[in-house]
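quick one before i forget lol
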Amino acid sequence: MTDADDLFEEGYRQYLEAESPEDLEKARVSLGQAATMGHAMAQDVLGNMYEDGDGVKQDIATALQLYRKSAEQDCPAGLFDLGHLYMEGNGVEEDPERAFALVQKAVKLGGQPDHIFRLSVLYHEGKGVAADERKAQELLEKAIELGSTEAKASMGALLLSGDGVEKDVDRAFRLLKEAAEDQDCDAMCNLGLMYETGTGVEKNMGETLKYYRQAADLGYAPAYYHMAVLAGESRIPV
């Protein structure tokens, strides 16, 4: 490995294991050194830190610069994150077509499950590309096959409602349960709703509350709403 590879691995490990601002600063230094040496993944991860204000003062301009450098090396993560900024108009003028092209290239070069899922969403919503539900569903199924938690939660919700797909509560339950086990809050709330209404499963207030509370513990606002409704109806203690 090159010195840049060593620095990236050290910095990324420090970042993932960080428990204090001091730990994050160590990660920033290591990643910064690797990024300066041209390491594409270090540039992307450091860009994530600046975009989110994670251990550093939030600085979208710096994040944008780092993502561009990473994307110029055809790093899938850099391409995807740069595309996200263009889609949101965050730090740059909103440009859905450019965003779509970047995400599409990220998928072509990397094939990461969550990148594939996001590409499916763009086809579904017609953002930066003509809406194509068939292509969206094809990509969504591929993302599920590769293990994307977001894709499982999304498809589970679609199968539960029958929105654009044939309703299938059994498969919806399986996918939502898998996604909930991976800490997806949307999936937790949908599972709670299934148990609350007896959709595809027997009504079970214990399971309903379990899933709503799991999502609430993660700070998911809709879960608080569901619990407030139940409390207002005197179905759970206030």
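fyi Residues 74-147 form a domain with the Serine Threonine Protein Phosphatase 5, Tetratricopeptide repeat fold (CATH 1.25.40.10).
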